[in-house]
Design brief:
Blueprint lengths: L2 H11 L3 H14 L3 E3 L12 E6 L3 E7 L9 E7 L4 E12 L2 E9 L12 E9 L8 E6 L33 E4 L9 H10 L6 E10 L4 E3 L5 E4 L2 H16 L6 E7 L16 H12 L4 H8 L2 E6 L2 E2 L21 E4 L10 H14 L3 E4 L11 H8 L4 E5 L1 E3 L6 E4 L2 H14 L2
Parallel strand pairs: 1-2, 4-13, 4-14, 14-18, 15-19, 16-17
Antiparallel strand pairs: 2-3, 3-13, 5-6, 5-10, 6-9, 7-8, 7-10, 11-12, 12-20, 16-18, 19-20
Helix pairs in contact: 2-4, 4-9, 5-6, 7-9
Keywords: Aminopeptidase, Hydrolase, Metal-binding, Metalloprotease, Protease, Zinc
Organism: Roseburia zhanii
EC number: 3.4.11.-
């Protein structure tokens, strides 16, 4: 497969944070990475490749150079596995005039009206009864077929819709799953469907974390196929590129690490998020396992540098006034270096200059993104992670249109520029 085909396969597989991690682990195993657990002692070697799966939805992978010394740089890339979506609530069955609906809540800051009238499916993880109450069985599930639709109200009943209508999250965004006969309205029709998919009894299902996702495939578009339209470009493009970098590049000296956090879209403050101690703990355990004492651990950590890899805003051709007046990145112009004096993007001129020199030394296209001074932009995990690991940090990523829509849009060439940058980041001596 070429790069675009590989990216499309990854985007299609990453239908929940669990599935992003599962697909990533498979790729790491194919490339010789060995598993470690935070619950067990580590035995690692120079020249080794390892990964840590954390609570199913967060993942870290690292390589140790065969000639690694304690004063060598640790190069880190971070991205996130989650995306705006709907999460299914407990006891989700709602029956209204014969329609079986599923009670959901909004996860993250999606453009929710773009989800209406689209085929939707369900994926995630399910906890099942077990003989050991402290170790319930965990099963991943992906229905892999359209199941749900959130129908729009017809224009004849909503004449003002094209002037802009606010959607009520509890009323207007409840997807339809089935027709439910009157004599079956008290049955747990969703739980029954889930049990059938898992081939278990309904009473064996204890709890679940299930994502409603857009059941549509990525496509090339544009006169010369210069664009990609797909769900979940934010932020599976970054996960894909970091995976390629960590598996394909190697340094004789130094440690390369890629970490993929969950819960970025809701603030990162969780045991799986960038606001946890996970990254610092992993780095400490790596250098300790390589023979560092307590003082050397602290010194080694501060030899690190972090790239926070997440998508950026491209100039919108119909709304160019929404972009900064002098920094106007466009699709297919190269990946973006993201800067903000508020530190919502964690950058400083020295760290940015390092990335710029990497790009210029390797002929890699890049652009700069800064918010308009009168528009509050988004944020990333970079500022959060670097507050806990205070090392030079740069925010960067592929420019996209329609960020947080059900389908987003990017330039076909930009995945190449970001991949080249990350590979150079991990590979340059």
């Amino acid at each position: 497969m070429n790069t675009t085909e590989q990216l499309f396969e990854f985007l299609s597989a990453g239908v929940s944070s669990c599935h992003v991690v599962d697909r990533s682990v498979a790729h790491l195993k194919e490339n010789g990475f060995l598993p470690l657990s935070m619950k067990q002692a580590w035995k690692i070697e120079r020249g080794g490749k390892y990964y840590i799966r954390h609570h199913d939805t967060t993942l870290a992978a690292f390589t140790v150079g065969g000639e690694y010394q304690m004063n060598d740089m640790i190069r880190i890339g971070a991205a996130h596995t989650d995306f705006p979506c709907f999460k299914i609530k407990p006891n989700p069955e709602v029956v209204t005039h014969g329609y079986g609906k599923v009670n959901v809540e909004c996860y993250g800051g999606g453009i929710w009206n773009t989800w209406l009238d689209r085929p939707l499916s369900i994926a995630g993880r399910v906890a099942l009864k077990s003989d050991d109450v402290f170790a319930p069985k965990i099963r991943l599930v992906d229905f892999q077929r359209p199941l749900l639709v959130i129908p729009n109200l017809a224009i004849h009943m909503n004449r003002e819709v094209n002037k802009g209508i606010e959607l009520n999250r509890q009323i207007d965004l409840m997807p339809v799953l089935a027709c439910i006969p009157e004599d079956m309205k008290q049955e747990k029709f969703f739980l029954k469907l889930l049990a059938e998919e898992l081939q278990v009894e309904t009473e064996d299902i204890l709890d679940y974390e299930l994502t409603v996702y857009v059941a549509e495939t990525p496509v090339l578009t544009g006169a010369k196929k210069e664009f990609i339209s797909s769900p979940r470009l934010d932020n599976l493009t970054s996960v894909y590129v970091l995976l390629e970098g960590i598996t394909q590049e190697w340094r004789a000296g130094g440690i390369n690490l890629a970490i993929f956090f969950d819960h970025e879209e809701i603030g990162s403050r969780s045991k799986q998020g960038a606001a946890s101690l996970l990254l610092r703990d992993i780095l400490s355990r790596i250098v300790t396992a390589l023979g560092a004492d307590a003082k050397e651990v602290q010194t080694a950590l501060y030899q690190s540098m972090l790239l926070s890899v997440d998508v950026a805003h491209a100039l919108h051709p119909n709304q160019p006034g929404k972009m900064d007046v002098t920094n106007q990145p466009v699709l297919n112009g190269g990946f973006c270096l993201k800067e903000a004096s508020s530190q919502s993007y964690a950058t400083d001129c020295k760290a940015v200059a390092i990335v710029q020199q990497i790009c210029e030394a390797n002929g890699i296209s890049y652009q700069k993104f800064v918010n308009r001074s009168d528009i509050a932009g988004g944020s990333t995990l970079g500022a959060i992670a670097s507050a806990l690991l205070p090392v030079p940090t740069v925010d960067l990523g592929i420019p996209v249109l329609a960020m947080h829509s059900a389908r987003e849009m990017m330039g076909t060439n930009d995945i190449g520029s970001l991949t080249a940058c990350i590979r150079a980041w991990y590979g340059m001596q």
